[in-house]
Design goal:
Oligomer: heterodimer
CATH architecture of one domain in chain B: Orthogonal Bundle
Number of helices of chain A: 13
Radius of gyration of chain A: 23 Å
Helix content of chain B: over 70%
Order of helices and strands of chain A: HEEHHHHHHHHHHHH
Largest interface: A-B, 68 and 74 residues
Strand order of the largest sheet of chain A: 1-2
CATH superfamily of the largest domain in chain A: MetI-like
Order of helices and strands of chain B: HHHHHHHHHHH
Distance between the termini of chain B: 37 Å
CATH architecture of the largest domain in chain A: Orthogonal Bundle
Shape of chain B: globular
CATH topology of one domain in chain B: MetI-like fold
Helix content of chain A: over 70%
Number of helices of chain B: 11
CATH superfamily of one domain in chain B: MetI-like
Strand content of chain B: under 5%
CATH class of one domain in chain B: Mainly Alpha
Largest sheet of chain A: 2 strands, antiparallel
């Protein structure tokens, strides 16, 4: 009963629905109407597309940094506290992850709209309205809001696993809090930080929802371009090529993470 | 953090389309219940989530048990394939599946949606069951066989109870992922089939519509209730075993 063959149904399924589709993307990126061509990749080298690639990386990077700055202190506070409060706060942080990201983003959109809740409050207070939405800032904000829990969890996990006696030893040897943090806690927490950073950077890089809802027409990221190719322009080959480029970036980011062995050293999500 | 969600819920009771409070009303909820499109989307979402989570759990649990017995390069390769859907951006999964379905001429609609959802759910089930398998003492299973149990009986009485938490967690994750999914469904749906997420998206594109608030409020409260319920149950178990 407990045999390898149990996995065969899955293997067939995986081969058909995971491997083959990916191979299709590779194929379509290199072949147009049956001929091998690099035309699809060449198209990507146009200014418009390169710009949006860099913009995507830039925005994703900024969002990751902001998430890190906000999440690390929270994780530190959480890992220090004692039992009952901790559970509830942890649950509150994790809860949004379980909710539909579309709805969460939409919620912010309706809040920040020119006619939205915040601006209406400002109006009644006779203050000038602020144009929150539609622009890089709104997109960064949306990314940070959406992916914040993914940064908190790994850091929290790794901070919990730090051996308390190491910290105590550091104090005993005369180090003050700042030095202890800098030399003991921070380096030990790095695996979690890296996991968190990757778990924010990757979805931020590839999202198209957030830019659609919060960015208006002005912000075009890689995700949007890919989506366009498959719904409007119907340029499958180009869309596949862009997807390939995206996958390569993701792959590089991931190998960076596994090099640091962060998953093994307790920086995992669970 | 929760501000927008709370506001969304509050305004679902608002008697006006604009976010200016104009009196309490459940009009939007009534509208929501009467809307055929929303009803359909809800039914589809539920059906897809149920079918895909059940199938994914079955395939995934069997797969986890099979993978557990693998060694070396076979195991590595299978695990790597398993990680692909987990780590790939959802757009890539969505479009790759869409292209596959176009090529093999599978009709878009319920079948493609269910297949897509199963595909991205199975890895989570596997990852959820595997740790439990590893923790389990395999000798118990062999002991049962030695004592004369058939493999199926031994499985039912020894292995299955041990991996139950993992299986249930995996099923729950699969179910939630299916309900929440937008991107993969977006690319793989048929002309008439909408999931709740897609329906909300198309409504949101046309402008603010408090019916969306009503839908979201219900979705949020349901999830909150389920999660709190699970947490309470887990805490209760811990408290019971402690005594």
């Amino acid at each position: 009963m407990h045999r390898k063959s149990l996995a065969y149904p899955y293997l067939i399924w995986a081969a058909l629905f995971i491997v083959v589709p990916l191979l299709l993307i590779v194929y379509f990126s290199f072949f147009k109407e049956g001929h091998f061509t690099l035309q699809s990749y060449q198209k990507f080298l146009e200014d418009y597309y390169i710009k949006s690639l860099f913009r995507s990386i830039e925005l994703a990077f900024i969002s990751t940094v902001i998430c890190l700055v906000l999440a690390y202190p929270l994780a530190m506070i959480l890992s220090g506290k004692e039992m009952s409060n901790k559970q509830i706060i942890l649950l509150l942080v994790v809860l949004p992850m379980w909710m539909n990201s579309l709805l969460r983003t939409y919620a912010w959109a309706s809040l920040l709209e020119n006619n939205g809740v915040i601006n209406n409050m400002l109006k009644t207070l006779q203050l000038p309205t602020i144009k929150f939405l539609y622009g890089n800032g709104a997109v960064i904000f949306g990314m940070v809001y959406n992916f914040f829990p993914f940064m908190v969890l790994p850091i929290y996990n790794v901070l919990c696993k730090i051996d308390g006696s190491l910290v105590e030893a550091s104090y005993d040897l005369g180090a003050d809090k700042i030095t202890t943090f800098r030399r003991v806690i921070l380096p030990l927490s790095m695996p979690g930080v890296i996991t968190g950073a990757v778990m924010v950077f990757m979805p931020a890089l590839t999202t198209f929802l957030i830019t659609r809802l919060l960015g208006g027409g002005k912000v075009t990221l890689i995700g949007n371009i890919i989506e366009e190719q498959f719904t409007r322009t119907r340029d499958l080959e180009f869309g596949s090529a862009v997807s390939m480029i995206l996958m390569i970036i993701v792959f590089i980011t991931l190998s960076f993470m596994s090099k640091k062995d962060s998953l093994d050293k307790g920086g995992g999500l669970f | 953090m929760y501000a927008p969600i709370v506001l969304l819920m509050v305004f679902s009771f608002n008697n006006s389309k604009l976010p200016i409070w104009n009196g309490f009303t459940v009009n939007w909820y009534i509208k929501m219940f009467n809307d055929r499109g929303i009803q359909q989307a809800f039914m589809y979402t539920l059906i897809i989530a149920l079918i895909s989570s059940v199938v994914a759990t079955i395939i995934g649990t069997c797969a986890a048990m099979g993978i557990n017995r693998m060694v070396g390069w076979q195991k590595n390769m299978v695990m790597n394939i398993t990680y692909i859907p987990l780590l790939s951006p959802d757009i890539v999964i969505g479009i790759s599946l869409m292209m596959l379905f176009s090529v093999i001429k599978l009709p878009f609609g319920l079948p493609t949606l269910i297949v897509s959802h199963i595909t991205f759910s199975i890895p989570y089930v596997i990852l959820s069951v595997m740790p439990k398998l590893k923790q389990m003492n395999y000798n118990l299973y062999e002991a049962a066989l030695d004592l004369g149990a058939t493999p199926w009986y031994a499985f039912k009485k020894v292995i299955f109870p041990e991996i139950m938490p993992g299986v249930i967690a995996g099923a729950f994750i699969a179910f939630t992922l299916s309900i929440d999914d937008f991107v993969v469904s977006f690319f793989n749906k048929g002309a008439g089939v909408d999931t709740l997420s897609i329906k909300i998206y198309s409504m949101a594109r046309k402008g603010v519509n408090p019916t969306i608030n009503a839908i979201s409020t219900i979705m949020f409260t349901t999830i909150i209730i389920i999660l709190i319920g699970i947490n309470l149950k887990a805490n209760k178990k811990v408290r019971d075993t402690r005594i």
